[in-house]
Amino acid sequence: MKKVSFAAFGGPDVLRLIDAEEPHAGPGRIRVRVRAAGVNPVDWRIREGQILGAHPVELPSGVGLDAAGVVDEVGEDVAGVEVGDHVFGEGSDTYAEFAVLSAWARMPESLTFEEAAGYPSVVETALRVIREVGVLPGQTLLVNGASGGVGSAVLQIARNRGITVIGTAGAANQDYLRGLGALATTYGKGWVERVRLLGRIDAALDLAGSGVLAELVELTGDPRKVVTIADLDAPEFGVRFSGVAGSVPDALAEAVTLISRGRLHIPVEKSYPLTEAAAAHIDSRAGHTRGRRVLIV
Q1: Tens digit of pLDDT for each residue in 31-68?
Q2: Start and end of every Enoyl reductase (ER) domain (predicted)?
Q3: In terms of CB atoms within 10 Å, which end of the chain has fewer, N or C?
Q4: CA distance 267 to 260
Q5: Domain boundaries, the chain
Q6: Domain 2-107+267-296 class?
């Protein structure tokens, strides 16, 4: 099978499309014929060697956590899924023609494979950071870097829970944020004052890693009310860095419910063939994403 791999940490040029042996579903696992794979910032952070604690890497390594596809192997002790089912979920080395998933759910009928691939890690992360930052219904949550996949999910989930959301993003994404129910403002000089004009901030999430933790602490008045998934300098500011996933099956179940009720939609900004995984990483790292990026396999 074809698979994206890297033999050394580094830039996107270390990615190679290689011929590899097919993986197989062990106990408690399923294998899918991958139709689409989600592209997440954690993918290129791992490739660069940034995040190794929560995601230990043995080189050479495959790439990718999220996938949507058709079940073609079911491991021992697995119930409720059959060969031929359309599923989306999380596993390992999903930038490939076949991948083994450790957590999955049946795809909502309203989703294509391309759309479904963009949800698993994104929704788990969104649910986790909302929980960790402790924001409650009736309060206001500031989201730095709100237009990407996780931000899109956070805004919709928080609004669905009765939380007011303020999102920061580039000028081109202001209407997109407003369409998700957020009060929107731009990055750049004077952004802290623009946020203050929109309301009192009870909690804040940093999804962009753009060096604004000090300002987020200032706006909330307490580093314990700030959580980041993207700034490794978090300990210097007393801010929590969230990098270890919670229950992916629970997150997928909630995603299915929200999607089926029309309360969660994350658009696919751009799709790439497997041969252009490096380009997908370059674009993801550049930021300014509106929704998700995925690979079509």
Answers
A1: 999 999 999 999 999 999 986 656 678 999 999 999 99
A2: 10-295
A3: N
A4: 15
A5: 2-107+267-296, 124-241
A6: alpha beta
Beta strands of the chain (E only): which ranges? 2-6, 16-19, 30-39, 61-62, 66-74, 86-92, 98-106, 140-144, 164-169, 183-186, 203-206, 226-228, 240-241, 268-273, 292-296
Tell me the C-alpha distance between 291 and 269, whole Å.
6
Contact 219, 196 (CB under 8 A): yes
CB atoms within 10 A of CB 105: 22
- Given CATH 1.10.287.180, say whether it is the number of domain 124-241: no
Amino acid at 86: H
8 Å CB contact between 263 and 156 = yes
Distance CA 75, CA 154 (A): 33
